[in-house]
Amino acid sequence: MSLTGGFERLLVAGAPADVRIRVDGRAKRISIKVDRVGGGITLTAPSRAMIPEARRFLKSRASWVEARKAEAVEPTPFVDGAKIPVHGILREIVHDPAAPDPVRLTDSAIIISGSTDLLPTLLTKFFKAEARRALKKASDRHAATLGLKIVGLTIRDQKTRWGSCSSSSKLSFSWRLAMAPAYVLEYLAAHEVAHLRHMNHGPKFWKLVAELDPNWRKAEDWLKRHGPNLRRYG
Ligand SMILES: [Zn+2]
Question: How far apart are CA 15 and CA 25, in angstroms?
Answer without folding.
Answer: 30
